[in-house]
Design brief:
The complex is a heterodimer of chains A (329) and B (544).
Chain A (H helix, E strand, L loop, with lengths): L16 E7 L6 H14 L3 E4 L7 E8 L2 E6 L2 E5 L2 H13 L2 E6 L1 H9 L3 H24 L7 E3 L8 H7 L5 E2 L4 E3 L4 E5 L15 H12 L8 E5 L10 E3 L14 E3 L3 H10 L3 E3 L8 E5 L2 E5 L10 E8 L4 E9 L1
Parallel strand pairs in A: 1-2, 2-7, 3-6, 7-8, 10-11, 11-14, 14-16
Antiparallel strand pairs in A: 1-17, 3-4, 4-5, 9-10, 12-13, 15-16, 17-18
Helix pairs in contact in A: 1-4, 4-5, 6-7
Chain B lengths: L1 E3 L9 E2 L11 H11 L2 H9 L10 H25 L6 H8 L2 H14 L1 H23 L3 H8 L1 H21 L1 H28 L2 H16 L4 H11 L12 H5 L2 H8 L17 H47 L14 H6 L5 H11 L1 H4 L7 H12 L18 H20 L1 H4 L4 H23 L1 H6 L6 E2 L2 E2 H22 L8 H27 L15
Antiparallel strand pairs in B: 3-4
Helix pairs in contact in B: 1-14, 2-13, 2-14, 3-13, 3-14, 3-23, 4-5, 4-21, 5-18, 5-21, 5-24, 6-7, 6-8, 6-16, 6-19, 7-8, 8-19, 9-14, 10-14, 11-14, 21-23
Chain lengths: 329, 544
């Protein structure tokens, strides 16, 4: 579907406080997206923010035959005889963060052989799914009454930016200053380089320049919120299993190492916003006080269908986070 | 909808380039971790020495039955790990499946408070298997007995606590490398012992033992004196074999002291998964457990052959009898460390010292993990706002989790003093196993009810695909695990032979649960006053 580009639906915040729900890295999990849309009413939040890595990593082909469909789930070939069965399996696949892709056996064979075909099909499925999600958002966010800010992460393809931009009820945060009537939110979905060479990666110097560009938009750091996908380096919010050269976790996965961004860390130390929210490293759920800044990574367990997030209460008068709670919704 | 086995070559799924798509961890690495957790030298041999508390029990039988039973626990935990692969293990599973309060109380008691007691236990093992034999081999029997005394045990416990604290501070990265080399070095040491026991006859051992015991401790005919002393103290060693089964079953609650931990690394596993991960996770723990069992069986068989089964049991029985106030003094006044006795078969002090040092790698390769899981639990509880935020603080300069170290180390120092100077408290050693078993019990319950509490999560888990005759194996393994833990808990709490069902021991354990419940209740109240509802932490957001 097409959408007219709407005005940002960020409503006026409370005079003093603002209750924010922040989640991140749902990676295509439809159950997590539905929960995210319900989070505002569930937690009585004034604003919901999704920090990036919206799209999934896995596509599950479902082959269409004469009067039935076939799919491999958990190592077992499953035959689906009715449309209801097909819809149920598609729902389960989506809830796990994967994309069901219905195709003929010949298409599947071609997909495996032709170079770039898988990436193209991935893009089609990702965009279609995101489009559907944004349609859901229109209803759940009461036509923009509940402000919602979405951003890309390093794993998200470029094509999602324009899709999110075109939504009338969701604000695409990347590179912008979003004024929340007393609070200033800036977003950046880029990360420092990873071993997987993903879409929005840049060396630390480049990252620092991007951060400076968005930070310069902020009129008052006392009431600023950084929404940066990469967590700050060496803060405990960025601990991932150490890998060997073949991307195998070393020492049984017991050894963790910091993999966050030094540019993000330096920016927090330098600008001292009231709050800095992050994602990217799913297993590094945590909170870190960095001077006057409260830095948070709620982590992600999207594969379990659980939406991890952070409930935050911001106080404009005090210019600080007065309450926070990490939740597994 | 119908399912059938895969037969064609078309891809079942496509992955795109994205963060975190890593290969599964190495089975060898997790196997080493599991093998060091169920440590045959530091925990196994130490616990074997308590055989006389169930005088008719057969060590070999109890080790084998225990291992078969614990294998079910491995299956149950592998199921939990691949279904909810989160660092934090029991804490995460139980809070998610059973609720926040139960999860906190079980994790705080089983992975934090009770580790305070493990510190002096480790200290005692270090004294018995390192300082005492080293001092003896170096020709200082007085120093050796000092290390076996109150002050010696306390000092070595403090050394252990400092060592573990430093290793937590420097992190696992460097230590994991050390750990691996310690494991290989320890295996070499074990191999040397096996060869020596294999090639030596009983008579040559008796002769060597008498010679070295006289040289070091000035005791004449120590072998015969040990056997005579045991008889005089009223102990009769069972003939080497497998029966009686009943008495051997009663040794199982003791064997848990070393065989209950193949899943120790489960608190550390993060978000690493793949289609074959169940097998990978299972194999790591299972082979780790059964390597320990294989080493134990080899050790017991060769000891029986070369030391003589009676002598081995007599030396242990006599030592503990004297320790707990028996009137017959042992011929060897320090803990009868079999490695030291084996080293005496080569009349060369340098060799004897080197063998003790090599075998101490089993200790040093493991001690660093003593407080590792406690840190994880303290951090997770602080992030959940149950503990003050400071508990999860890490100093900027030195990267040391100062407050969590204080929460772990200070009580451990206090308990070490009790352990060293109050012999009654010393009998509470198996409390350290019992409290963790209770935590495991709740995880076993969680795995049994998982398919009902979280049906979609269970259906999507690789664990749900493991079936025998159409019956899912993991929940059944959970039921068997409940049987294992229930049996042990019943025996610990009803049989005074284990030293943990006395009033003092029960009060001590109860105090830990009361403390955990109190912390949770106070946290709920304080946070509520601050306008933070901790009840929201695990409340599921509606989907529709």
């Amino acid at each position: 579907m097409t959408r007219s580009r709407g005005a940002r639906c960020v409503r006026k915040a409370w005079v003093v406080g603002l209750k924010v729900f922040f989640a991140t890295d749902i990676h295509g999990s439809e159950i997590c997206w539905r929960k995210f849309l319900n989070a505002a009413s569930f937690y009585k939040a004034d604003l919901v923010v999704l920090g990036g890595d919206v799209t999934g990593k896995v596509m599950v082909p479902i082959t269409e035959h004469n009067g039935y469909w076939q799919v491999v789930l958990g190592g077992e070939k499953v035959r689906l005889d009715t449309r209801e069965e097909l819809a149920d399996v598609e729902r389960k696949i989506r809830n796990r963060g994967s994309y069901p892709a219905v195709m003929s056996p010949d298409e599947l064979t071609e997909l495996s052989k032709e170079e770039g075909a898988v990436d193209r099909r991935f893009s089609v499925e990702m965009i279609a799914s995101l489009d559907r999600w944004l349609d859901m958002a229109d209803g759940k966010l009461k036509g923009g009454e509940i402000p919602c800010i979405l951003n890309g992460g390093n794993d998200d393809i470029w094509e999602i930016d324009s899709v999110i931009e075109s939504s009338p009820c969701v604000t695409f945060g990347e590179g912008k200053l979003v004024d929340l009537d007393g609070f200033h939110l800036v977003s950046m979905g880029w990360t420092n380089p990873t071993p997987w060479d993903t879409f929005r990666e840049a060396p630390e110097e480049e990252l620092a320049a991007k951060i400076e560009a968005v930070a310069n938009l902020v009129p008052d750091m006392e009431r600023a919120v950084f929404n940066f996908h990469a967590p700050p380096y060496g803060t405990g919010l960025d601990e991932a299993p150490a890998l060997d050269a073949t991307l195998r976790p070393i020492h049984g996965g017991a050894v963790m190492k910091p993999v966050g961004s030094t540019a993000v860390r330096d920016a927090i130390v330098r600008y001292q916003p009231m709050l800095s929210v992050h994602g990217h490293i799913h297993e590094s759920r945590g909170v870190k006080k960095m001077g006057r800044t409260l830095a948070i990574n709620p982590g992600s367990v999207y594969g379990d269908g659980v939406l991890q997030g952070a409930l935050l209460e911001l106080n404009a008068k005090k210019g600080k986070v007065t309450k926070y709670l990490l939740v597994n919704g | 909808m119908a399912t059938e086995a895969l037969g064609e070559e078309r891809p079942a799924l496509f992955l795109r380039k994205a963060t975190g798509l890593v290969r599964g961890w190495s089975v060898r690495d997790s196997m080493i971790y599991a093998c060091l957790s169920t440590n045959v030298v530091t925990l196994g041999i130490y616990e074997f020495s308590y055989q006389s508390f169930i005088p008719k029990g057969q060590l070999l039988t109890s080790v084998l039955v225990s291992a078969v039973w614990v294998s079910f626990l491995v299956v149950a935990y592998a199921g939990l790990i691949v279904t909810i692969p989160r660092a934090g293990g029991d804490y995460v599973w139980q809070t998610r499946i059973l609720g926040s309060g139960i999860g906190f109380v079980m994790a705080a008691t089983g992975w934090w408070f009770i580790l305070w007691l493990w510190a002096p236990i480790y200290g005692n093992v270090l004294s018995a298997e390192f300082f005492q034999p080293l001092a003896a081999e170096l020709g200082h029997p007085g120093a050796a007995t000092w290390f076996a005394g109150h002050n010696g045990i306390f000092l070595v416990s403090l050394i252990t606590i400092v060592l573990a604290g430093v290793l937590v501070s420097i992190g696992m990265a460097g230590y994991a490398r050390i750990q691996k080399w310690c494991f290989y070095g320890g295996l070499v040491g074990f191999g040397i012992i096996v060869i020596l026991l294999l090639v030596s006859s009983k008579s040559s051992f008796v002769s060597s033992f008498n010679t070295e015991a006289h040289k070091i401790f000035g005791v004449s005919n120590a072998y015969a004196a040990t056997n005579a002393g045991a008889v005089k103290s009223g102990y009769v060693s069972p003939a080497f074999g497998f029966s009686p089964l009943g008495a051997s079953m009663l040794l199982i609650p003791m064997m848990m002291f070393y065989l209950l931990w193949p899943n120790w690394g489960s608190t550390l596993y993060g978000e690493i998964r793949g289609a074959s991960d169940f097998k990978r996770v299972f194999r790591g723990m299972f082979f780790g457990l059964w390597i320990t069992v294989a080493l134990s069986v080899v050790f017991l068989l060769l000891i029986a052959k070369t030391f003589g089964n009676d002598f081995y049991n007599n030396s242990n029985a006599l030592y503990w009898s004297a320790y707990y106030g028996g009137k017959v003094a042992p011929a060897i006044p320090i803990w009868p460390y079999p490695v030291m006795f084996v080293s005496w078969m080569v009349h060369n002090t340098v060799f004897q010292i080197v063998l003790i040092l090599i075998m101490s790698l089993w200790f040093f390769g493991w001690v660093g993990t003593l407080f590792l899981s406690s840190t994880r639990v303290i951090f997770a509880a602080a992030f959940d706002r149950i503990l003050p935020d400071r508990a999860a603080e890490v100093s900027e300069k030195r990267k040391v989790p100062l407050y969590s170290l204080v929460l772990m180390l200070l009580p451990a120092v206090g308990l070490s003093a009790l352990y060293a100077y109050w012999s009654k408290f010393y009998t509470y050693t198996l409390d350290a196993t019992l409290v963790i078993a209770v935590t495991y019990l709740f995880s076993a319950i969680a795995v049994v009810i998982l398919p009902f509490r979280k049906p979609e999560l269970w259906a999507a888990s690789p664990a749900s695909k493991i079936k025998i005759f159409g019956v899912p194996v993991v929940p059944v393994a959970g039921v068997v695990t409940i049987g294992l833990l229930g049996f042990n808990l019943y025996e610990w709490l009803s049989n005074s032979a284990y030293g943990v069902n006395g009033r003092g021991s029960l009060y001590y354990m109860l105090a830990m649960y009361v403390l955990a419940v109190a912390i949770y209740v106070v946290a709920r109240l304080v946070r509520r006053r601050q306008g933070i509802d901790l009840g929201l932490i695990n409340k599921e957001i509606p989907v529709e």
